Amino acid sequence: MAVLNYLTTTHFDFGAIKLLAQEAARFGAKKPLIATDKGVRAAGLLDQVIAAVPEAKAWPVYDGTPGNPTEEAVEEALALYRSENCDGVICLGGGSSMDLGKAVALLAVSGEPLDRFDPLKGGGRFIKGLAPVICVPTTAGTGSEVSVGFVIILKDGRKVTFANPQIIPKAAICDPELTLGLPPLLTAATGMDAITHCIEAVLTPAINPPAEGVGLDGLWRGWRHIKRAVADGKDRDARWHMMMASTEGAMAFVKGLGAVHAMSHAVGRIKELKAHHGTLNAVCLPAVLRFNEGVCAEKYARLRQAMGLPDGADLAKAVEEMNRAIGLPNGLGAMGVTKEMIPGLIPYAMGDLSNLSNPRKATPEDYAALYAAAL
Amino acid sequence: MAVLNYLTTTHFDFGAIKLLAQEAARFGAKKPLIATDKGVRAAGLLDQVIAAVPEAKAWPVYDGTPGNPTEEAVEEALALYRSENCDGVICLGGGSSMDLGKAVALLAVSGEPLDRFDPLKGGGRFIKGLAPVICVPTTAGTGSEVSVGFVIILKDGRKVTFANPQIIPKAAICDPELTLGLPPLLTAATGMDAITHCIEAVLTPAINPPAEGVGLDGLWRGWRHIKRAVADGKDRDARWHMMMASTEGAMAFVKGLGAVHAMSHAVGRIKELKAHHGTLNAVCLPAVLRFNEGVCAEKYARLRQAMGLPDGADLAKAVEEMNRAIGLPNGLGAMGVTKEMIPGLIPYAMGDLSNLSNPRKATPEDYAALYAAAL
Predict the structure, then answer these.
(1) Cβ contact (<8 Å) for B214 and A213?
(2) Which residue among A130, A170, A277, B230 is least enclosed by CB atoms within 10 Å?
């Protein structure tokens, strides 16, 4: 088994889930809250964890995490955490469950309300600490198990990215076994989420070459294995590499993200659309790649190399072809976004944390054009 | 200025040295020992640091570090540390000063003798802690400022690698300004040290894709800039990238190293030769690249890509050409090693920690052939 000792100690391999109780104990969590969702439970993954880790049977479970987690759900889970006297959080699921669990761990120690921790308002100074968080991803895309942030839709309708080094989970257990049953469409969407993380992290101008190296490795791995993982969910080798690409994507985006995420978050906050974050990233990525081209020529050359594309290949076109090949929608229109919605999206994209780290400064007019192109 | 928050918080840029006192204070070091060597002092670098950091004027200085640091020198520095009631170590120099300083920090808290910490004898269990270590590299090659280890020649003649996650320095201050005066030959030798770290770390079979990504990025950077840094020591851009390649090389070799280092350490322990570690690595690298080829074909393809070489290019030949171009010796013979010495080197190479992580198992006969080829 690989043990990756970076900021999050990551146990990575088939069967790693067996280490969950031991890891919880290591951080003093005797009665952690399991933060998950109904889909994870219905897929039998909670049972799979309990079968491998008998201690988990006694741990309280919150399974009300919505697809795009909300402040209301965080409060509900926090109430359960408190009434059960929990002392840690096990996040079991995709990005939604992990983000919700991280928010619960923050509020459990640093206190409500959530929005005072908004990094755009200097919220880091209010963080007194977090309850110990151990993440167990069941998808390969978000990388939230090693990331500095979480994203929650607040009661006022904003979808806010909370990012701070203190939020990085103590430990992650990445067991690709838990992803073998993930259906093709979710495999494709979450896989493109990981690939988008790697690409946007490399392109963002912050100076952090080690993170760029990790992002390029994740891109190399993800791009080579995504079609195999989508075509055959039981392809253990492909599942291993997709999960690694996901973890690496989030290690890389300690550098920041870019306009793709600004666009996705603005759409993701519209609850009625129930739009999947990874799918949004996949369909917005080509337009942003065309927009950023020219300001980062050397980095584009390295992205092409990592993706095994010839010199000068059209990156945006390669992503469009990949999206088509793995069955993802061909644009935001197919996901319910209409031309009329665009003006309402722009202020949220402009106000998103990821907008600040896009390599090319984007104006409201640019976002209007980007949304139109991605439609 | 780039701040790289990995296991070692690394302040990286021209002028970063100004942060030294602040970083020392952050780890509670009010009177740290400066571990350095006479070459660093003679080059004016100690004065340069004191000019930028007035507090450093009051810190005791040990400048007796030999080219390949010995247990005797460690004890001498430790005696000064104790008599001056120091509370931390600032390592100022190349790999030798950094390794010596790390050893002093270990013994100051965990107690002598040094050899009980040998990782090949399970020595990690004796580590009770280290005094805070802040490294300030003045060469770009060793990467010891972020590495898990240090190498010391013990009184019994063995050159032992002490490696443990607890040894990773708390902070590093990487200021390429301090390398502008490094002469061409030392620039070449230390630069090839960094490049060897990146290559051996990628090739070693431990599973750690993020470390591999970092190593490939370091190789990409180092290979592109080493000739420029050697040709013009004042090329600030080349110096920046060489220092980053050095840091990345050591972040990568958390995975382990290989036969090049086993060979180099065995020669480096012969005090009369006064052989430079980086130069030894550079001249041993081609033979080991030929030896390992075939067991890691996919990794060789990635190394070629990082080095900008065409598909199928002869890696060993490329390194030989590079060594020639930057003025390094063409073999161990030119460094004083004779055919007759080879049998005496083999047991030390076989017993070296790095031998265990070479991708292809090497026998004593293999080392005989490797030394003969590198002669």
Answers:
(1) yes
(2) A170
